[in-house]
Amino acid sequence: MKILVCITHVPDTTSKIAFTDGNTKFDSNGVQYIIGPYDDYALARAVELKEQTGGTITVLNVGTVETEPTLRKALAIGADDAIRVNVAPADSFFVAAQIAEVAKAESFDLILMGRESIDFNGGMVHGMVGELLGIPSISPVMKLDVEGSKVKMTREIEGGKELLEAELPLVAGCQEPIAEWKIPNMRGIMSARTKPLKVVEPSAVDGLTVTENYELPPAKGQVKMIDKDNIGELVRLLKEEAKVI
Amino acid sequence: MAILVFAETADKKIKKSSLEAVSYAAAMGGDVVAVVLGQVEGGELEKIGTSGGTKVLHADDAKLNEGVIQAYASVLAEAAGKAGADTVVLAKSSLGDAVAARLSVKMGAGLVSNVVALPQGNKVKRSIYTGKAFANVELKSGKKIIAIKKNAVPLKTDGGAAAVEKFTPSLSDADFKAKITSQEKAKGKVLLPEADIVVSGGRGLKGPENWGMVEELADALGAATGCSKPVSDMEWRPHHEHVGQTGVKVSPSLYIAIGISGAIQHLAGVNSSKYIVVINKDPEAPFFKAADYGVAADAFEVVPKLTEAIKALNN
């Protein structure tokens, strides 16, 4: 089975979010970049599937040269080779179109990625790739097993879950608890240095949206502390001041 | 030009977040045509008019009772054509995201999700970095899809009656390549992403056996229950209750955090709540910095008192 895992290169979940250049650029000063947490789950499940059924894992990122350490980390975790589409991601459609072009050329059986990136939180790329390739897209997937050409999945729905079946090929947007995160070991780190990392030039696609600038939310006011022996006062404030109960 | 709204249902009822999407579309102006897929309870379609919709296209087909992503995207594309709509508005949800993405490609429409305010011309404001920032985005395409975040606009309740038209979309087997074999849903509970009040518990509650206290407070408030990541990791509570950066993001009017210290990843999932109450015995817990109201005391002492006070208020 040929598995493609698409990964994002995103600021660590604890990063302080700030902008520069008149609020038009993300301030990456001092920011640690990681594989998107949801993509990490997708990669971990791909490694488990490869262990069970054999096959190959290709990891893909749409990004400039700065993302290569993130791709190398994915190789250290267990991917066999990597592809970097050499362009800064514009919008979701642009990224999806680049992924779909690579996927068309390589005929992957299963395309996994996170349910959403943790920077832009769009949750759209998997669906767009599915539609561009004319194959099913399922998200958010919390369990995925392959039996021959059949894929059995559990998808999270609001207030519960649903079980689905589909034939390969398909695209899945993954989330926990689909697999245990894998931490690269020393052997993986050493072998990642020599695994192939192919750089391909982007396809000519226009994005459909443009981000003009960014804003930070207004600063939070001071917390009002309430004595534990005066809970009636909390209820009064929620009713009369906040007007939420 | 009409605006098409995808009115999502849960348990044969139109979701409140979808009625907010209808209200949002009505505030944009023009005809608002809502699409309802699958069977619904009596009286549900009337809510579309009350929320500002002018017309309902109802595909009353049992095959559409469950949210099949591909089929829904095909039906919505057909509905957009039928309604002559160049803009589609929907509520952000796990199904909404998955459907809107495919619809965007079908329609050649730019898609912006997590939108928090009405558009200004072709520009919309969206939440990014899990609520830690906003981006102002220009839609360049002629056709547009806007997925709004909960609580982005007030729910309109004084609209008129919407004309209901039966809609029979052309469905093919290709739309049902992925088959739903079963569903498990918590019945009769307030859905977490839809809830106007959320009561969440963390490790400070010491174990799943103590959750009755949280549920009792939630019942008194008509609230949904949530939890922190360690709590769902330890399987004290189901995963769909995990609130945070890698779980459910909520934006209720009131978020009550009990025994949760306030890790940055948890805060990211709740920071667009209108009001936050924190109950934690550690006065140094970082969550107090993000709270509007705080009680630095033992949850086992405070929560029953709070529940009693809410019950007294309700009576």
3D structure, described in words:
The complex is a heterodimer of chains A (245) and B (315). By secondary structure, chain A is of the alpha/beta class. In chain A, 28% of the residues lie in helices and 31% in strands. Chain A is built from six helices and 15 strands. In chain A, strands 11-10-9-12-8-1-6-7-13 form a nine-stranded mixed beta sheet, with helices on both faces. A two-stranded antiparallel sheet of chain A has the order 2-5. In chain A, strands 3-4 form a two-stranded antiparallel sheet. In chain A, a hairpin with a 4-residue loop joins strand 3 and strand 4. Chain B is of the alpha/beta class and 315 residues long. Chain B has nine helices and 17 strands. In chain B, the strands form four sheets. In chain B, strands 7-10-6-1-4-5-11 form a seven-stranded parallel beta sheet, with helices on both faces. In chain B, strands 14-13-15-16-17 form a five-stranded parallel beta sheet. In chain B, helix 3 crosses helix 4 and helix 5 packs parallel to helix 9. Chain B is globular, with a radius of gyration of 21 Å. The termini of chain B are far apart. The mean pLDDT of chain B is 94. At the A-B interface, helix 3, helix 4, strand 9, strand 10 and strand 11 of A face helix 3, helix 4, strand 7, strand 8 and strand 9 of B.
